[in-house]
Amino acid sequence: MRHASLPAMPGANIIMNAGSLVATFAVTSGLGMAYWLVGAHYFSREAVGLAAAAISAMTLLSTIASLGLGTALIGELAKNVPLRRSITFRSLASATLTGAIFGIAFLIVTPYVTSGFHELSGDGAITAVAFCAGVAVMAAGVVFDGASIGLLKGGLQLARNAIFAIAKLTLLALGAYVLSRKTADGLIIAWVVGCLISLVFGIARLRSLPADGSIGRRDHARLLRIGVTHQTYNMAYSVSSLVLPIIVVTVVSVQANADFYVCFMLASALFIVPNALVTVLFAVGTQEKGELAASIRLTLVSSALICTFGAAVLAVFAHPILGLFGRQYSESAGALRVLTLVTFPLIIKNHFLSLTRIRGTVQRWLVPAWIGAVCETTAAYTGARIHGIEGLCWGWLIVVAIEALLMSPSVIKSTQVTVSPEIQ
Description:
- By secondary structure, the protein is mainly alpha-helical.
- It has helices spanning 10-42, 45-65, 69-79, 84-109, 118-121, 125-150, 154-178, 185-206, 217-252, 254-287, 292-316, 318-323, 333-359, 366-414.
- The chain is globular and about 60 Å long.
């Protein structure tokens, strides 16, 4: 008598693999929350706010500076086994150099745009150096994580991120007693050095790859073109959330950004659920198009149920949860409640993103995606000017909800019929 096997159940594949991604996020975000808890208790709100804005800027710049090579390597390394070592290290070098250039350019240009980062580009020489180094090593980290997946070494990616989380938390605890608690130096330096330690560990592990050849300039240029295409689309969906802390520092204040960053970190625990599910949906849907409609129904329902429960918990216990970071942080409970609502339209947006990749219609939706990103950023900026961080959250929510409303017919239709490679 033959038993049914798990591979015949795409739903099981989705839940198991998405669960793995969420577990990875839980480990790193749990330690990340401890990092900001230590920061909130030992450093001033001004220091926490500036550090949060600086780290957000580093994240944004490093994501751009990675040139999409992390995504490109996932597919490229599987096809070029003899050149894996050369491709990986050449890509890491490109991202690191680009990241350093972006960091320097940011510090040069920023004083002409806003005074919110004056400590980075003004008197804080050590912080400025740490910032530029941070953009460089974080860009390399993005590429490294993509390469780990392409090499089928997902455990290496998890190990690097766990080491990063542990190292930066340990360094911050030490820095709280060595460096001034009134400046952002300790928070930024601990973050950057922790990332560097994790990257050194990861690269040391990759040096065991056989050096069977060297990638040529033409092939590397082709890889860059592939990466930039992926990056352009990825950034359209993520740029608005990455610039929100920068908007708070520019429009509201450094202190307000401390409150916002904590709220956004907590809300991100909800955002990761639909993101993880649609990431696996993309992989499963590409291989099993006949089961796509059932898979989408599963990910939509799972996302809705999990996010509803999580949003309810955060909304009801917003005050005591934020109070863990300090009494002043609990005053931003309203902003946290608004951010929890964003997770619901993001469920639709993330599914639409996955569908465009499965259908092979990324190029068709590239311009509309960037129009949406500009609208989200503009609405958030306007809301911040009118009513601080809560206004920013409302502005972002309204535009994301409108986008989800426009995308929902396509997502709903995909749950009813098998999706063909062409856009319906």
